[in-house]
Amino acid sequence: MTEDNVSLGGNIELSGFKDIDSGSMVIIKKIVGNYAKRFSQRIPNFERIRVIMKPVHEREHSEKYEIHAHLTVGGNPFIAEDTDRNLFFVLDNVLRRVEESASKA
């Protein structure tokens, strides 16, 4: 695992967040951790969640964040991605979408 990958517990992995300030990282870990808890309670055979961030159009005070969420349930991948200027909004959005996809399967 590279220094750009952060593992939270056994089933959560964050990648691409190395340039995010520590205050924002606390919020990101909280959001992802809460979703992982929901996944484990609501989705049978939940295995892991991997969240990848790719900065897009890097300009000071007008960054866009591209977030990819990979949810693995019973060996099956569920993937969502989105791009937005608000990191927390786009993170919540992709995690909600993979949850909805996995719940319907």
Give an account of the 3D structure.
By secondary structure, this protein is α+β, with helices and mostly antiparallel strands. It has a single domain (5-104), classed as Ribosome hibernation promotion factor-like (Double Stranded RNA Binding Domain, 2-Layer Sandwich). It has two helices and five strands. It has a five-stranded mixed beta sheet with strand order 1-2-3-4-5, covered by helices on one side. β4 and β5 form a beta hairpin. The protein is globular.
Strand order of the largest sheet: 1-2-3-4-5
Uncertain ranges: none
CATH-defined architecture: 2-Layer Sandwich
Major sheet summary line: 5 strands, mixed
Query: Strand-residue fraction?
Result: 35-45%
Domain module tally: 1
Residue share in helices? Answer: 25-40%
Q: Note the overall shape.
A: globular
Mean pLDDT: 91
User: Which fold name is given in CATH as the topology?
Assistant: Double Stranded RNA Binding Domain
Q: Please tally the helical runs, counting DSSP H or I stretches of 4 or more residues.
A: 2
List the defining traits of the structure above.
5 strands; 37% helix; 105 residues; single chain; Double Stranded RNA Binding Domain; alpha+beta; 5-stranded mixed beta sheet; 2 helices
